[in-house]
Amino acid sequence: MADPMHQFQIQKIVELPTVTVPGLGAIDLSITNSVFAMLLAATLIVVFYAAAARKAVVPGRLQTVGEMLYGLVDGLAESIIGHDGKKFLPFVFTLFAFVLFMNLQGMFLVFTATSQLAVTLTLGIMVILTVVGVGFAKNGIKFFKLFAPSGVPWPLYFLLVPIEILSFLIRPITLGLRLFGNMLGGHVVLKIFAGFVVALGGLGVLGWAGAALALSSVIALTALEFMVAFLQAFVFAVLTCVYLNDVVHLDSH
């Protein structure tokens, strides 16, 4: 049976020179399969919406799907953040589309970018840095009120404030780990069952029965993985909106 973890190995596709950046050290600029997958996802998003945005008297399927995804995130941002959700819609929708396309293309290509913790954790850190930036821009020093909810007896603040700070710092980790874990685990299970199909197929009649069972499991798991690919992008967008709502409506805390 093939190694189910082999599909997650980083490999160089285009060799580029290493540059030295002050404060960061040597950085290899080579294009890996992970970088290529992310570039491909970004390109596919641009191509998809360029095609979907073409004006037509009767909207085609492509335009309908594009509008449906955009309307979904638009309604999500407005329902969680409120009227201010429109301001953050480009950011939230870009994250949603990027994660969704990386997840979906991983179902067709050998490599899935969101199965790399470095990728998902970077996205999570980017979300939290945006939240901090919006929080300070909108509330100034009052941003720190996020860690001290109102209506709590003052002695409890000695316990509550450290917990709130720790919870806030853990947010990018949980964002990254949730997406990473779901995509990694799903692809590993698919690879294992697909290996059973090949391995059992050469064991005669009884092996064929086992291979058929494994194949039916692969089909069911593939359908489940497509659903997970969408749900994980949606959950990432939901949590991004929730975190932004915390700092946009800080006075309600």
Automatic annotation (TrEMBL):
Leader sequence residues: none
A cellular-component GO term for this protein: plasma membrane
InterPro entries from the UniProt entry: ATP_synth_F0_asu (IPR000568), ATP_synth_F0_asu_AS (IPR023011), ATP_synth_F0_asu_bact/mt (IPR045083), F0_ATP_A_sf (IPR035908)
SUPFAM superfamilies the UniProt entry points to: F1F0 ATP synthase subunit A
Protein's membrane topology: Multi-pass membrane protein
Keywords: ATP synthesis, Cell membrane, CF(0), Hydrogen ion transport, Ion transport, Membrane, Transmembrane, Transmembrane helix, Transport
GO molecular function, one term: proton-transporting ATP synthase activity, rotational mechanism
Transmembrane segments: 31-52, 88-111, 117-136, 156-180, 192-214, 226-245
Entry annotated with the keyword Transmembrane helix: yes
Location of the protein in the cell: Cell membrane; Membrane
Gene3D superfamilies: ATP synthase, F0 complex, subunit A
Cross-referenced HAMAP family: ATP_synth_a_bact
Function text: Key component of the proton channel; it plays a direct role in the translocation of protons across the membrane.
Protein family membership: Belongs to the ATPase A chain family.
The name this protein goes by in its record: ATP synthase subunit a
Species of origin: Caulobacter radicis
